[in-house]
Amino acid sequence: MALREIEEQHRDRFVVFPDPGQKTEKARRCKRASAGSCVKIRLLEIRQFCAVRDMHLALFIDSVEHSGYSLQELGLKEGGGDLTEDLLIFGLYNGDYTGFSGKKAFSRLLGKRLVPPLPKEKSGFWGFTEPVSPKYVDFIIGVDEDGNEVTSTSSEDELSNYFGANPGRPHYLTPVFFRKAVLDKYHQQGGKYSVEPGYLRCAGLWGIRIDNHLRDYVVAWLGDLGRDLPYQEQLHWRSFNIPPTGSISETFFRQQILGEWVDTERPEHLFKYEYSALAGRSQHLLEWQVLLPLSTEDQHYLQAIRIPATDEQRNFDEFILALTRILVDSLNEKELNRLVSAQDREEAKGGISRLEKAFENRLVPGYAEHIRFLRDLQDLRSSGVAHRKGRNYRRLAGKIGIDAQSLREVAEALIIKGLAFVRFLRSVVESDAFRING
Question: Which 8-state DSSP code applies to residue 104?
Fold first, then answer.
């Protein structure tokens, strides 16, 4: 049976996860113009329910049809009969009306059919179904002296460990390397998956420790891949599997092997941490947010704050759109207006200009570089994402180094600048420079 069941948004569908992370619609609430609301349920689930309850499903039929012609005109005889066949019984009868209706004849089909339950071993419920042997994918763990790939099973029961199991076999804690794009699937479905520093989870269904502190690769322990990932997810990871390249990150080593509490050093992870910290400090100290919180529908923009796995222009454009939405479009202009004079409000158009005026009026030092960053970011979004790329985009590309660097390097540099801006805002909030009295 499913590991988890949830009722979907809008409360019109009930879905089941037959395999962790895989969604199947199980029932649906629908509306019928003639009979109000109804519920449609898959036959499989109904028969599974009947299996564990030792019940048959009964379908009842009672249908009457009327005719403006008499039985004689229709070539039919009055009366009828019953038919019984296995679990089906029905009767079909014809009759004439005797003047109390505008119709001359009728027929009635009355019956019942029993649908047997599934055998208990096919019910899908724990305790009845025979256990299915788990399947494991073989992963690349190295290369031999001839340069050929060396693979190993990810089954925990067939790996060695520090307790003497399976001597001579690959170790449970063998690092397995993957291209960074292995995580794109999870980033793009933020409502289902959560990619965290050092951990990937699918709601409450499964989770696995990962080393995503490296710039170009993702690493996971061989035994964790088999123990913690469903088989279909193992197949996904296998398609991005590469021979070992370098070593695991120092952060992952200290966390996993030395058992130390170590913060991440990746700028995309630090950005999300500082963004959350800014929100908390703003609410606590100012009782308003300098950066407006993202709506539920916009939460995916925060997931998009990461160094793209490839140099594809589309991925870079999505990153620019997300960073601009969070840092520029979310500036709280309403509250910033309270930090500037009426004349400044007239002169300063847009969130960035209002923020700049607020810095000036509150005598905040060192803000100029952050304002330049925000303007460049907004111009890059306007000239390269929101509109067709033209001469202005090429000018900006040269200014921020797109022509001289890979798009991934530019994205990393922009995240670092965004991180510095968020930290700067947090320091301003904590300095009480933005406090509004009265």
Answer: -
